[in-house]
Every structure is written in structure tokens, then in C-alpha cells.
Amino acid sequence: MTKQEKVEFVIKTLNDLYPEIPIPLDHKDPYTLLIAVLMSAQSTDVRVNQITPLLFKEADNPYDMIKLSVEEIREIIKPVGLSPMKSKGIHGLSHILIDKHDGKVPNDLEALEELPAVGHKTASVVISQAFGVPAFPVDTHIHRLMYRWNLTNGKNVIQTEKDAKRLFPKDLWNDLHLQIIWYGREYSPARGWDLEKDIITKTIGRQTVLSDYYKQKKS
User: Fold this and answer.
1) Which key words tag this protein in UniProt (predicted)?
2) From CA 26, how far away is CA 144, in angstroms rounded?
3) Model-level pTM?
4) Quick one: CA torsion of 6, 10, 13, 19, rounded to 10 degrees?
5) d(Cα 186, Cα 188) in Å, to the nearest integer?
6) pLDDT tens figures, 162-201
7) Measuring CA to CA, which residue among 11, 23, 3, 33 is closest to residue 130?
């Protein structure tokens, strides 16, 4: 298979598996999405979806959020982990949204990345899911799969994002990044991986990855 044929195979398989794509984090607008994505760092979407309703009941917009203290925010979001940093970030970015952006979340990558506790991946998720701007946020699932599929050298997420954007058509980025995340969770996880169920890796996987898998199965 040529690289182009591999890319087409990935797209077709993902479209067949996920014609309707669920959104992982519950939210109702760009602000609640931004907060949910920020909270999801080093946590699970399930855990975040359990905690955001408790926070949004108190404050689901920047004006109400800054009425809470950092300590009050931290107390609510503690179960998602990294709560000291995340609570400061949520409080700080809410102030900046009011002061600089009329209380609205900007649909601009650079403006988002200037907000406290908002990195490139978080900003990319927000512009793609809240505003439909083409982006290819790379999380650990996408990073792992792109390497397994021999579509990137996998040295870091920055390189993986560049390779994904180069290989996949721009109009598919927003759907594809979500489809790959769901595929990684269901068929190609880091732990408890069953290659027989992972049709994409089994078909186009990197030879060293496949060899290592079969060696471990034998041992």
C-alpha cells in the first residue's frame, strides 16, 4: 500500500465505524467547552463530565465564574486532578475574557493560547468543536495511533500534528481527530491491546510495532 492508499483506508474505516461522531466532553457553548477541555488535562472525559455539571451549576459563564474564589473553584473540581493549576487557570482566563473579549471566547488560536492554562491542544479543540475552524488537536490516542500506523515518526505531538495535517484533507480534520480518539479507545488502546480487533493497525501497521506485539504474545 502506498501512503496515500493507507490514508484513504484509514478515512474509509473510520467513517464506516463512526458515521455519527459523539462529542467526548459535555458542554453547551464555547465557554463551557473551554472549561471542560482545560479540566480534561491528565484526567478522563468520564470524570470531567461528572464534575462540570457541579461547577456549571455555580457558574457557567465568565461573569459568574469570577464571583467564585480560586479556592471555591478548586474545591469543586478537585476530583479531576491538578486542581490548584486548573482552578487558577479557570479564574484567570474568565477575568481576561471579560477584560479583553467582552466575556466571549475568541475563535482565534493565538488569542486562546494566550489564556492561562490553555495550551495548543486545548485551543485547537475549542476552535474545531466550538467554531468549526479546521484544526487537528493531537492527544495521546492520536499520537499513539499515528505512530502505530506508520504515518508519523512519533517523536513528539508537534510533529504528529504536522504529519496529520499534511496527510489528511483539511475539510476532514475536525471529524477525523474525534474519530481517531474513539478508535484508539475502543480498538487500539495502550493497555490490553488486541491486534485482532484493531483492523487498521493490523492492515497498515508499522512492522516493528507488529513484530513487537507478536513477540510479546509468544512470551
Assistant:
1) Endonuclease, Hydrolase, Nuclease
2) 25
3) 0.91
4) -150
5) 6
6) 999 999 999 999 999 999 999 999 999 999 999 999 999 9
7) 33
